[in-house]
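Model it.
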Amino acid sequence: MSDRGTDNHSEVTDFILVGFRVRSELHILLFLIFLLVYAMILLGNVGMMTIIMTDPRLNTPMYFFLGNLSFIDLFYSSVIAPKAMINFWSESKSISFAGCVTQLFLFALFIVAEGFLLAAMAYDRFIAICNPLLYSVQMSARLCTQLVAGSYLCGCISSVLQTSITFTLSFCASRAIDHFYCDDRPLQRLSCSDLYFHNMVTFFLCSIIILPTIIVIIVSYMYIVSTVLKIRSTEGRKKAFSTCSSHLGVVSVLYGAVIFMYFIPDRFPELSKVASLCYTLVTPMLNPLIYSLRNKDVKEALRKILGKKILLFNSILTVT
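Modeled.
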């Protein structure tokens, strides 16, 4: 099948992921960087989920959300990183049509779910700081489950719509996707279809996903800041802010990268690839570090688990 002359998307059986336009000698270095980052993602997020599930003291709404955040980070980075690493060694760099559809669908699902989950976490911090006496009542297990389920549902619905309108386009320009994974904007460049309807639906989805979540986060933190400033003791204000700083760090990295990515002019594909790295790999790597380094409960739970492992190891050595 040639790169050009395809008249309809149904004739496309595969795509080529161009990846980073660097010298072939640098592919080994990029592979090692991706491998190191992905290993840290696996270790950090699996470790975070294990700590939360095994320590009864972390059986609270905040850690329930945090466990789901680690789950989402783990899976959407796993949708991207393994294929990107394989392509550093592959000459063809191809991905099947079905594989491309699956990659876009899963990535869109998890990235949208993360946005809604971060909004739910902001609401959780708002209740914890502004209405602490009613926290256990308002943030019930049922409500927490509904918020998380709703995040996944919104992610699924938006992903179905985005994937459907993208792959009903006709791809007749080329098979070469100028990116390291299947994403909406690079696929648009391959289309010879009228993109008006596609762009309108994409704008609508962005409006109902990004705006509400950002509004919830901003309004929650406006109330939080107002409440914290009324606390007289410096120690009390510091403690209140410390519970929010980790979440703010995660929100800033994710939304900063996404907004930067989609506001870059489309004529700078290499710059958009770098921005994509921030929310596909860097954010999932940093999230466990941000929450573990700034959270006393997580650090204490980690020390407890490591202490048990060391004690078990020492007892085995003593027996032998």
